[in-house]
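Need tokens for this chain, all 119 residues.
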Amino acid sequence: QVQVVESGGGLVQPGGSLRLSCVTSGFTFSAYIMSWYRQAPGKERELVATITAPSGNLYYLDSVKGRFTISRDDARDTAYLQMNSLKPEDTAVYYCKAVNPYRSSLTYWGQGTQVTVSS
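Here are the structure tokens for all 119 residues:
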């Protein structure tokens, strides 16, 4: 049974940091492209960051470059999103997605974790 579970969200003041985790099971994590998306109220879901497998190539949304860092630990089947210098506009539900690069139909989403940046 496939599981994708995000955690680490919460309320943080502007300028603060959070580290999101995405713990997975039920598929070969090391072979999957891992991404973080976010969706703010009234807005479409947008891609925030991606890390490929096995090369570990990275992609970031322009507005988070230099502030967010995506990483993966294949030994723990876990992906991370380190978020620094948070801004109110980063407030959203953050979702983790796993995609098989050879069979895109094998795509798995987590349930999301809320990040709120507010003073």
